Every structure is written in C-alpha cells, then in structure tokens.
C-alpha cells in the first residue's frame, strides 16, 4: 500500500487489489462447492475451507470499505507491509485452487487434481489449504483491528508462518506447469470461473490480477511468467522467538498460544452437515415443474458483507442455483443466533449484485417447484416477493426449506407478525405435499410431532419430526427421505415386546438434523425408532404405511 495521505491513483490501485482478492476468494469457494460432492471423504474439510474463503472475502471487503473512510485512512501505513505479505501468499493459494478447476474436465478427475494440489501444499509448501485460509482470516482480522485502532491479536507467529509459506510458494512458482487433463469426450478442460467485465468498477475486476493491477510496494501475485522476487516483508518484531512458531494440524481449532484464543478459526454451523455429501434426487415431473429462473427482487445492498462482518455474522452455508449464476448464502451470529440471508447474483453485464435481509422478515410460500421468500407489507398486509428460488429436485427443496425455517426460528428475537409464521408450507397450495399421517412421538421428556408426507409434484415420500409445543412448535427438527422403502410394508414394525415403539429397518442417508447436537432416537441395534406416546398413534402409523406400500405396488 502507498503511504500517501491524499487519495489518488495509488490508493485506487490499493482498493482494486483488495476487492479483486475478495472476489477471487469467492470464486475459489464457489468452485470448491462442486468438488465437495465428488469427494465425500474430504467433504467436511472442503466445507470448512469454503467457509474460511468466504470469511477471507468478508474481512477483505471490510478493509476495502475502511480504506475509503477518512477516519481510518491515516492508519493504513501501519499495515502496508503485512498486507503485501498477505496478498502475495493468498493470491498464490487462490490461483492454485482456480488452476485445479481448470485441470479437471469432469467429476471423474476431481480426486486426482485435488490430491495433486493437496500434496503440493502439505508436502512442499508446509500448510494444507484449510490451515492457510484459517491463517489468512486471523491475519486479516488483525489488520482490520489495527487500522480501526482496536486491540489486535498478537500475530507475530502468524506472520512468521506466512513468511515461511510464501518463501516455499515462490521457490516452486516457476518450476512446475501442471498438466491439464482433457477428456476426449468433452474436448476441453473445465474452465476457471468466468472473468468479470473489464472496467474501473470494483465489481468488474478480473479475479486473476495482472502485474499492472498490483499497487506499488505490494508483491506480485504468484504464479507469474518468471519466479517473482521475495517481497519486502517485515522481519519479526524484536524479541520474537523463531522457535515459538505454532505447529498446525487439520484437527486444530485454535493456536496453542493463549494469545490466539480470541481469534479461533471460523465456526462450523450445523447447516453445513445438512448439505454435506449426497442425498436422494427425485426430479419434479415435467408438467409440474416451473421453468422460471431464480430471481431476487429485494433492494440491492452493496455493503451487506461489510456490515455483517462488522456485526459479527459468520457464514453458515452457501448454495448455488441456476448453474451457479445465483448464490444463496445463510449467515448467523453465534451470540444470539440472529440469521440473515444473502443473495449474490449478476446483472446482464456480469457484475455482482448483492441482496440481504433478516430471515425473520421473510415468509416461505411454495409455488410448485419454486420457493418464494416474501416480505410482509406494512400498509396492506400483503406478501411481496423478495426472492424466488427454482428447484429441480424435491429433496433439495425440502432441505432448503427445513434449514431456512429452523435458522429463522432459532433466532432469539420474536417474529414481528403472526403472518410471518411458517407451518408446513411445502403442503401449500394444492399440489404440494400431501399429509398422510400425523402423530406424536417422544424423545426422553420431549414430545415431537411426527408427520409422513408424499409430494404430489415428485411422488417422493419423507418423514418429518418437529417440536410439539413452545416457541419452536412445528419447526423442523429432522427429516428422512424414505421413498425407496415405500413398497416394503415390513420396513416399519413394532419393537419386540413393545406396542408403542416402531423401529425402521434402515434409513440411508441418515435423517437430516436441523438442530446442533441433536440425534434422533435409536435402539441398541442402531436402528432409528419412533417412540409413540400412545398405542393408537403407533398402530395408525403402521396402517398408513401399509396403505402407502399397497399404492406403490398397485
């Protein structure tokens, strides 16, 4: 960064570099979402990496906005050299991820290119991808706190670790040209995310910085045509002990030093487990499905990411729609479970557009294969569409609905209107889910509603449990997709010696849970069970299940 106190061309270059780096982190996160489904053995780690990349982007945008504020601008000289170190290393890391996308023409090559990148980072550059993006988050937050005159974490050890890693990155930058794998059936490799339109707007910068994009005094990003020279980074502060550099493992959630306790890596929200790995995929019938594209009609909020970062929000989950043209991200704040929905899409010129609001301000309305998220007019109490999400598969619609509603009601604030309550919204209007059964089960001292649904648009069948009473009444607790057993009457049967407990032979995948730490009840054999409150409810469930099986076999 320049040390000029008057905004000028150098300052504009500084700002461009920040926003370009943030957008590159978002592109890397978006691409990794596709890899996660192909690599179930790495799904948990990739999910954490995606979260950290969005955290990187969020703090970069905070610093970007602070740079335009005369209140903070005089302090930017303090982070000048550290930001040079950060930009050089993080840009190298992000470009390695984008290069990995380019090397894989299809899902069949995802594991190969992932393991190639993993080997290079872990064995030759000292830190794996998760560890380094966690370091970037910690380092960036400290830089943000410095310019805002807050008490910043001691980052001497992190600086040391980043410097060692950057030296390893630069040593190898000109020695390898990874091969691009081309599938003969496809003829071309998988492209990296589409570059944004050229221009001066911060939303139109290319995700790959060229040397002309980098402000004077900031190191060139890697890789380049020739190995870049080492950046002019600061030496450790006096008194720094090089032997105190922390050793990181993928299982660590904080640094060994107590000084880092307040800067632990990004937390994992339960929603990430919901969308981790594969799930059944029952397509809506052609005559039922709407051919509408996902849209957001809410007001644009260009500063939403910055504001959420300021307010302590963290990313819970990011979901792509319409071939990744449209992204829905859910954020939450740990202190009070405040929940927000953030939508990122593009205009006709390819520029990013941002929309954001609280989940509690939205009502879910199903419109065949679409979900409408609607605000309530204060003037006439009518619903106004804020966004419409298009789904091809029933199960994905269900998981989105249950996750959204659960996060909305776990927010500690009360809803402002009863008209914003959500109750079995996938059953409405006619043509949605048909309620086949409703009864009450218990788990310890807690009573839950149990419902069995059959969707009329796809034919799929699912179970859902929700709270029986209280503030969370009818909010989804767990759901299980059971279509594959809907022709087997023996799948559900009474437990030996019981007239109220029904065991389910198998549920794969296991029930999807929408509350942190909760597990549906199981018997000693590991089978999921339905402990009904009354024998009448249990026998009625068996009757309904048998009728359903007969209808499937007819």
From TrEMBL:
<dbReference type="InterPro" id="IPR057082">
    <property type="entry name" value="PH_C"/>
</dbReference>
<feature type="compositionally biased region" description="Polar residues">
    <location>
        <begin position="239"/>
        <end position="258"/>
    </location>
</feature>
<feature type="compositionally biased region" description="Low complexity">
    <location>
        <begin position="201"/>
        <end position="212"/>
    </location>
</feature>
<feature type="domain" description="PH">
    <location>
        <begin position="435"/>
        <end position="549"/>
    </location>
</feature>
<dbReference type="Pfam" id="PF23074">
    <property type="entry name" value="PH_FT_N"/>
</dbReference>
<protein>
    <submittedName>
        <fullName>Uncharacterized protein</fullName>
    </submittedName>
</protein>
<dbReference type="Pfam" id="PF23076">
    <property type="entry name" value="PH_FT_C"/>
</dbReference>
<feature type="compositionally biased region" description="Pro residues">
    <location>
        <begin position="224"/>
        <end position="237"/>
    </location>
</feature>
<dbReference type="InterPro" id="IPR057081">
    <property type="entry name" value="PH_N"/>
</dbReference>
<feature type="domain" description="PH">
    <location>
        <begin position="304"/>
        <end position="420"/>
    </location>
</feature>
<feature type="region of interest" description="Disordered">
    <location>
        <begin position="177"/>
        <end position="258"/>
    </location>
</feature>
């Amino acid at each position: 960064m320049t040390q000029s106190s008057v905004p000028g061309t150098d300052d504009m270059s500084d700002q461009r570099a920040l926003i370009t780096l943030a957008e590159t982190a978002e592109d890397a996160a978006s691409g990794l979402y596709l890899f996660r489904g192909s690599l179930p053995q790495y799904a948990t780690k990739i999910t954490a990496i995606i979260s950290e990349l969005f955290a990187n982007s969020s703090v970069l945008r905070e610093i970007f906005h602070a740079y335009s504020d005369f209140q903070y601008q005089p302090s930017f000289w303090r982070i000048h050299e550290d930001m040079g170190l950060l930009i050089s290393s993080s840009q190298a890391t992000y470009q390695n991820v984008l290069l990995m996308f380019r090397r894989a023409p299809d899902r069949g090559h995802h594991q190969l290119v992932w393991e190639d990148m993993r080997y290079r980072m872990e064995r030759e550059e000292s830190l794996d991808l998760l560890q380094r993006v966690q370091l970037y988050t910690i380092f960036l937050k400290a830089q943000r706190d410095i310019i805002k005159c807050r008490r910043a974490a001691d980052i001497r050890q992190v600086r040391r670790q980043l410097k060692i890693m950057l030296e390893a990155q630069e040593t190898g930058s000109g020695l390898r040209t990874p091969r691009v794998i081309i599938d003969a059936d496809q003829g071309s490799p998988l492209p990296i995310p589409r570059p944004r339109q050229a221009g001066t707007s911060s939303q139109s910068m290319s995700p790959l910085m060229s040397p002309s994009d980098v402000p004077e005094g900031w190191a060139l990003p890697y890789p380049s045509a020739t190995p870049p020279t080492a950046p002019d980074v600061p030496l450790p502060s006096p008194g720094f002990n090089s032997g105190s550099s922390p050793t990181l493992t993928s299982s660590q959630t904080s640094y060994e030093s107590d000084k880092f306790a307040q800067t632990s890596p990004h937390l994992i929200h339960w929603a990430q487990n919901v969308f981790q790995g594969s799930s059944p995929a029952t397509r809506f019938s052609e005559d039922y499905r709407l051919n509408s594209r996902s849209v957001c009609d809410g007001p644009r909020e260009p500063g939403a990411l910055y504001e959420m970062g300021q307010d302590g929000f963290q990313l819970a989950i990011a979901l792509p729609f319409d071939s990744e043209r449209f992204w829905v991200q859910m954020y939450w704040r740990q202190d009070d479970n405040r929940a927000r929905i953030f939508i990122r899409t593009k205009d006709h010129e390819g520029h990013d557009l941002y929309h954001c609001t609280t989940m509690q301000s939205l009502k879910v309305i199903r419109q065949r294969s679409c979900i409408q998220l609607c605000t309530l007019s204060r003037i006439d109490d009518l619903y106004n569409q804020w966004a419409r999400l298009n789904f091809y598969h029933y199960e994905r619609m269900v998981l989105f609905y249950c996750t959204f509603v659960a996060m909305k009601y776990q927010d500690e604030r009360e809803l402002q209107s009863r008209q914003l309550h959500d109750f079995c919204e996938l059953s409405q209007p006619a043509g949605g889910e048909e309620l086949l059964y409703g009864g009450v089960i218990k788990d310890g001292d807690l009573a839950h509603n149990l419902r069995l649904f059959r969707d009329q648009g796809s034919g799929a069948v699912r179970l859902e449990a929700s709270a029986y009473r209280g503030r969370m009444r009818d909010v989804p607790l767990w759901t299980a997709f059971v279509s594959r057993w809907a022709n087997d009457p023996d799948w559900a049967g009474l437990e030996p010696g019981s007239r109220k407990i029904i065991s389910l032979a198998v549920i794969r995948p296991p029930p999807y849970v929408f509350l942190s730490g909760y597990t549906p009840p199981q018997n000693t054999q590991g089978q999921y069970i339905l402990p009904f409150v009354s024998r009448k409810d249990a026998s009625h469930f068996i009757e309904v299940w048998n009728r359903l099986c007969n209808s499937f076999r007819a």
